[in-house]
Amino acid sequence: MEEYCDLEVDVNGEEVFMVHKGILISFSSLFCKLFGNLKGTTRTRNLKVIFNEFPGGAEAFELIARFCYNNGRTVITPSNILLLNCAAHFLGMDGNGSSRHSLMDQTEKSLEGINFWTWSELLEALKRCQDLLPATKSSIMLQGILDCLIGRLALPSIASSYTCSSDSSSFQFSCDTRSTDSLKNNPSQLTWWFDDLLFLNVDLIHKVIKTMVSQKFNNATIYKFLFYYHKSRCLGAAPAEKHKVTKVVINLLSLIDRSSLSCKGLFEIYRVALGSRISKIYRNKIESLMGSQLDQATIDYLLAPSPHRRSYSYDVNLVLRLVQAFLVEGSCLSSTSQLKKVANLLDSYLVEVAPDSHLKPSKFIALVLLLPDYARESYDLVYQAMDLFLEVHAGLCEEEKLSVCCALNHEKLSAEALKDLSWNSNFPSQTVQKALITQQSKIKSSLPDTRHLIPFSDSLFCSNTKENLVKEDAEQILLYNKKLDSTTETEKLRADLHGMNWKVMGLEKVCGTMQTEMANIMRSRLSILGNARFLPKLCS
């Protein structure tokens, strides 16, 4: 047979094959173009061709050679179908017009039985696809394998029960229908395939996830798989591998519905991204996703240390970006409760970072003003944070202190907070005065309404009505607002406030006395009416 081996084929430097060029020419249009015009055996005995990027390497070429030497017949299995198909496309083995000898047609027709493949065979075929990338990246066969595999994943209680005989390529189907519902309702049954797909590299994982999204696969399960994939692939990996995997996962997370994401997982991926020094474009993407789920976060998530070579303790800029992302994503528009959760979270964060002596007033103010006023039901935590900040930053001038306190809504402070603020020397005098005036206003609004008692007791209660008190004190407040002598006026406000408290107590006592007196009067009138006697009417 040696006289028939007139062609030497070097495949990717892996192995050299001695073949008869005439046999290969009869099946391959590529070999036909290369050697079809050559005649004679002596002159062409030492021909040689070198392939540097032959898909599937030496293993695939050996399968091709066997196909050609067996007159266009071979056994096609899930493990070699991709090798044969890619090599056939590379060599142009379309049968020269004869479908019977077209290896491309044979492999594509064999794919029609993919629904009968076992789960293990599907995985083996997918691994072959990965090995043959990029040759199979846009392959119809790859897409067919992915469609079948992902369709199988949608039936977790059924997919793993496929069995197949390697000899007959037939399949058996076994499933206890009574247990199907319980399996589907069990979260662990929805994730049984996670470990099986960890072999996917970053090139193929992108194709797999995009196919899942296009087939409307459960987005929450996709997210869980991506998080598991990222964590598993980065564990013990080299920095370059972590960097590459993290970039791909962040891109894929952007394809998933925001409601399916988990705040905790996103923050963990973000920490890995920072550690691998990922570029700004990917940081912005993951921060946008984190911001959209900020209402799920806890204070521990936000207390990220400051970047390297920064003096302040926590990464305040990160929190500013996350809250802005939350607002841009529109989460607050879908639910008022979400916005309030973020407001409470931000206020707790303010209390944590306020004692940092390196935190600049501009950053602190930016945090306070980040959310609209209606997002907060109470400003007590904001007041607490301001108190801590001003205590640590005692060297601030009066104007700087005022700028820090400008966002404090006194109307939304509790009575206890207002009382504390009215005696707090850390705050500027104007803020303290405003607290005293707010206290006065709240006390007046809490005074009992006695207008309905006036017709019954003009002599008992004529000069201490609520209207007179409000009129007198309103005039005093207007005078206070016009004066700038902070120390004197603040003391006067405190004294008047103390007096108002006694007025309230006295007024409540008077009202109680009046109500008792009125009750006695009414009882006496009813008694008189009950004891009255009437004369009979005289007849005319």
SSE blueprint and pairings:
Layout: E1 7-11, E2 15-19, H1 21-25, H2 29-35, E3 47-51, H3 57-69, H4 81-91, H5 103-110, H6 119-132, H7 140-153, H8 156-159, E4 162-164, E5 171-173, H9 177-184, H10 202-214, H11 219-234, H12 239-253, H13 263-275, H14 280-292, H15 299-302, H16 316-329, H17 331-334, H18 336-353, H19 361-368, H20 380-392, H21 398-405, H22 415-421, H23 429-446, H24 466-482, H25 486-531
Parallel strand pairs: 1-3
Antiparallel strand pairs: 1-2, 4-5
Q: List the helices and strands in order.
A: EEHHEHHHHHHEEHHHHHHHHHHHHHHHHH
β-strand amount: under 5%
Radius of gyration: 42 Å
Main pleated sheet? 3 strands, mixed
Number of helices: 25
What's the β-strand tally? 5
Helix proportion: 55-70%
Structural class of the secondary elements? Answer: mainly alpha
Ranges with pLDDT <50 over ≥5 residues? 157-185, 456-485, 528-540
Arithmetic mean pLDDT: 80
- Going across the biggest sheet, name each strand in turn: 2-1-3
How many angstroms does the end-to-end distance come to?
A: 157 Å
Spatial shape: elongated
Task: Tell me about this structure.
This protein is mainly alpha-helical. The protein has a domain at 446-523. The protein is built from 25 helices and five strands. It has helices spanning 21-25, 29-35, 57-69, 81-91, 103-110, 119-132, 140-153, 156-159, 177-184, 202-214, 219-234, 239-253, 263-275, 280-292, 299-302, 316-329, 331-334, 336-353, 361-368, 380-392, 398-405, 415-421, 429-446, 466-482, 486-531; strands spanning 7-11, 15-19, 47-51, 162-164, 171-173. Helix 4 packs antiparallel against helix 5 (103-110), helix 6 (119-132) runs antiparallel to helix 7 (140-153) and helix 19 runs parallel beside helix 21 (398-405). Mean pLDDT is 80; it is low at 157-185, 456-485 and 528-540.
